[in-house]
């Protein structure tokens, strides 16, 4: 068993990055339900993110999405974040919401469209220079819908060319995170559909190119912890986009659909020495019907609970059982940790940090929801895509 002090220290230092878009309105293609008090500007999103950090002590950075969070002065936005005890985190690019991208972005058959997409990606690096962000996240919606629509191999060549150009633009301390996704919006081929494709491109580019594992971007039944173990072993796991899925890319609260899977993933992180600043632990969620700030607080707590359980695995006992081939004992060691109620331990950790042991209740009592509902009247609420 890991020493209790070491478990507490690891939990105290854990940081989860929250996505700016999770504070805005979102929905499905059927309906976006607006909620009162939703932020109208990137600054108001940061005000909300500061509340998540205030009550959890574990969400000090906020990921931006460009152009959704475009402002005139990104350095000023970074200063605004800092005044609220936050830092701006990963810059997420967007090469999927312009009419030009109907047939793809950096993989498009037309070089002019590829150029436009590449210009956006390098402009995102300019923003990183201003915000002090380390990571650029690339998720490409590129792909095809019909067999024969475009040349699968040529699209990979175009992709490699664009990635190399972005990589060349990175500063010494900056990284490029390549995110894969099985399908959607393309339904026949996706140009970066899986970790293998992302890994192969990153390997060619160099050490500043790392793979992002978005937990919602896999086929049902995929063993995600195996992917995590492999990427960690290869030193190519750059970040997580945490969320839950029941069917496809549902973007529900992490740990809601399958807390056991989240525990297994976090165990591989612990096992693989992944608790370093080299791995960004981000949420990538949309809160369509639930209140946004409490949902994000709940998600941070779900990550903390899975982490605490993973840290509690008796690794010596596990290794002994594994070496002796005792299948049942090995499984029991893992399940003992998973079945531990870690909520009292986390409450203690929070109290030692001077926080309320119950972040959800503390947020409710703060009156922030009522205050923002009363104050944020008029203007245009932020939303996915706006
Ligand atoms: C795509 O589904 C994705 O997971 C990417 O991370 C995007 O940046 C994010 O969702 C928001 O569109
Ligand atoms: Mn994602």
Explain how this protein is built.
This protein is α/β, with parallel strands linked by helices and 386 residues long. The chain has one domain: Alpha-Beta Barrel (TIM Barrel). The protein contains 14 helices and 10 strands. Strands 1-2-3-4-6-8-9-10 form an 8-stranded parallel sheet. The protein has a two-stranded antiparallel ribbon with strand order 5-7. The chain is globular. The structure holds alpha-D-psicofuranose and manganese (II) ion. Manganese (II) ion is lined by residues 139, 179, 214, 241, 284.
* Domains (count): 1
Amino-to-carboxy terminus distance:
48 Å
CATH fold field value: TIM Barrel
Largest sheet: 8 strands, parallel
Percent helix range: 40-55%
CATH homologous superfamily, by name? Divalent-metal-dependent TIM barrel enzymes
- Ligands bound to this protein structure: alpha-D-psicofuranose, manganese (II) ion
Tell me the strand percentage band.
5-15%
State the low-pLDDT regions, or none: none
Strand order of the largest sheet: 1-2-3-4-6-8-9-10
């Amino acid at each position: 068993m890991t020493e209790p002090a070491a478990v507490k220290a690891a939990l105290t230092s854990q940081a989860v990055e929250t996505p700016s878009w999770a504070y805005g309105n979102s929905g499905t293609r059927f309906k976006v339900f607006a909620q009162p008090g939703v932020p109208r500007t990137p600054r108001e999103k940061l005000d909300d993110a500061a509340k998540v950090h205030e009550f959890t002590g574990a969400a000090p950075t906020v990921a931006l999405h460009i152009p959704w969070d475009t402002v005139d002065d990104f350095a000023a936005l970074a200063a605004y974040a800092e005044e609220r005890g936050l830092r701006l985190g990963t810059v997420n690019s967007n090469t999927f919401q312009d009419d030009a991208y109907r047939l793809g972005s950096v993989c498009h058959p037309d070089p002019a469209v590829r150029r436009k997409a590449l210009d956006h990606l390098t402009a995102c690096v300019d923003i990183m220079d201003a915000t002090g962000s380390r990571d650029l996240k690339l998720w490409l919606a590129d792909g095809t819908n019909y067999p024969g629509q475009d040349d699968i191999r040529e699209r990979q060549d175009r992709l490699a060319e664009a990635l190399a150009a972005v990589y060349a633009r990175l500063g010494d301390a900056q990284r490029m995170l390549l995110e894969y996704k099985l399908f959607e919006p393309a339904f026949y081929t996706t140009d970066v559909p899986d970790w293998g494709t992302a890994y192969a491109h990153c390997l060619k580019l160099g050490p500043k190119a790392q793979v992002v594992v978005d937990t919602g971007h896999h086929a049902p039944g995929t063993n995600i912890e195996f992917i995590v173990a492999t990427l960690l072993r290869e030193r190519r796991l750059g970040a997580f986009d945490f969320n839950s899925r029941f069917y496809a890319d549902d973007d529900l609260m992490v740990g809601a659909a399958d807390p056991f899977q989240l525990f297994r993933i976090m165990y591989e992180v612990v096992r693989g020495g992944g608790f370093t600043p080299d791995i960004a632990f981000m949420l990538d969620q949309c809160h369509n019907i639930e209140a946004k700030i409490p949902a994000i607080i709940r998600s941070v707590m779900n990550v903390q609970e899975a982490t605490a359980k993973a840290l509690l695995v008796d690794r010596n006992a596990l290794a002994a059982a594994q070496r002796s081939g005792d299948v049942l004992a090995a499984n029991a060691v893992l399940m003992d940790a998973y079945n531990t109620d870690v909520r009292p331990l986390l409450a203690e950790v929070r109290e030692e940090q001077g926080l309320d042991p119950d972040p959800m209740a503390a947020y409710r009592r703060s009156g922030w929801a009522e205050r923002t509902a009363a104050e944020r009247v008029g203007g245009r609420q932020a939303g996915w895509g706006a």
